[in-house]
Amino acid sequence: MNELLKNLRLPWLLLLLVLQAWPSLGAAAPRQVVVVLSDASAPYQEAARTIREGLEGESAKLAIRVVVVGGAGADEAMAQPDSLLVPLGAKAAQLAAKSNQPIFAALVARQSFEKLFPSTRHSISAIYLDQPISRHLQLVRVAQPRARSVGVVLGPTQSVSQAELANAASSAGLRLSAVALSGDGDLFSSLQTLLPNVDALLLFPDPLVVNRSSLQNLMLTTYRQRVPVVGYSQNLVDAGALVAVYSTPQQIGQQVAESIQRMLSARHWELPPPAYPKYFTIKTNSSVARSLDIEVPSEAVLAQRMGAGAGL
User: Higher pLDDT residue, 232 or 15?
Assistant: First the structure.
C-alpha cells in the first residue's frame, strides 16, 4: 500500500515542479538580437546603427547582428534559436513573419503591421512608423491656434477611419470635414469642394491622395485657396506643406533600443504592446507661412508645446 501511494504521488510532484518552473521557462530572454534591414538604404542603416549603439551596454547579455534581406547570412541569422528579430521596414517584416521567433518590428506603418501579423499570434510587437491621429490634430492646434476646422481627403487604402478622425478632432476642439475618394479623378474636384470650408488640410499617407503625379498640383491648389497643409514628412514640407510631424529613423531606433533594454532588465522577458513613436520631429516651411501671412511659432516652440518627446 505504501508503495502504491508513493507511485501515485510522484506524477503530482513532477507536475507541481513543472508548474513552478513555468514562468521562468516562458520568460527566457533572447541571447541575440537580429536587426533585419529591408534594404541597405540610409534610413534603415541609421535606425540599425542607433539600435546597436543603444544596446552597447548589454553586450555581455546580448549579441547584436545586422543583416539585409537577401544579403549574405540573413537566413542563417534569422533561424538562430533564442533570437529576437527586429525587422526594419515592410519587406523585412514580411520575411520575419515566416519565422517562429519573437518579432519586434519598426519603421512599419500600423496598417501594414496588422495585415502581416494576426492578433492571435504571440510574441510580436512594433514601433509604428506613423504618428497617432491625436498628434496630427494637436499640431494643427499649436501651429494654428485660430483654426476651427480641418479637412481630410480619405483614399480607399487610408489607414484611419472617418469615425476615428471625427472623434480625435472633436477632442482637439476642431470640426472635421472629410471627403472620400473612389478613383484617381476625384481628388481635385473633391478639394475644390472641401477647401473653402476648412482652415487647414490634414494629409495622411495614401497613394491615391499623395503621389508623385498629384503632389505638385495638390500643393498649388491649396496655396491658391490659401489653406495651409499639415503633413507627415519632411518631403511634404519641402514640397509646400506649412508644417509636419514625423519620426526619424534615429528616433525610432532609439525607442527600439530603450524598449529592449527595459525588457532585459525586467524579471520576466515579455514584449511590450505595439506602440506609436514616442519621439518625433516638427518641421515648418517659413516661406509658405510668409506667403499665406500665417504666424507660426518656431520649431522649438512647437516641439515644446507638443510634449517632451518632441524634437529628440
Answer: 232
Residue 51 and residue 35 in contact, taking contact as beta carbons nearer than 8 Å: yes
For the chain, the average pLDDT equals 87
DSSP 58: G
Query: Which is more confident, 179 or 160?
Result: 179
Report the CATH number that the domain containing residue 93 is assigned in CATH. Answer: 3.40.50.1970
237 lies in the same domain as 285? yes
pLDDT in tens, 261-274: 998 887 777 899 99
pTM of the model: 0.86
Half-sphere exposure (CA, 13 Å, Cβ side) for 259? 27
Number of domains in the chain: 2
Residues 188 and 299 in one domain: yes
DSSP, collapsed to helix, strand or coil, labels residue 225 as coil
Domain co-membership, 80 together with 160: no
Say if 312 falls within a structural domain.
no
Q: Using CA atoms, how far apart are residues 62 and 137, in angstroms rounded to an integer?
A: 40
CB 186 within 8 A of CB 155: no
DSSP state of 132: P
pLDDT band at 184 (very low <50, low <70, confident <90, very high): low
Please check whether residues 241 and 105 belong to one and the same domain: no
Range of the domain at 76: 32-129+250-265
Q: Are residues 156 and 172 in the same domain?
A: yes
Asked if residue 56 belongs to a domain, the reply is yes
Statement: residue 287 has pLDDT above 90: yes
| 51 within some domain | yes
Please state the rounded mean pLDDT for residues 91-117.
94
pLDDT of 215 higher than 50: yes
Are residues 216 and 150 part of one domain?
yes
**For 299-310, what is each residue's pLDDT tens digit?**
999 999 998 555
| Bridge partners, 65 (sequence order) | 34
> 123: phi > 0 → left, psi -120 to 50 → alpha, else beta; which?
left
Long-range contacts, stretch 18-24, CB < 8 angstroms, 24+ apart: 23/268, 24/268
Distance CA 264, CA 89 (A): 24
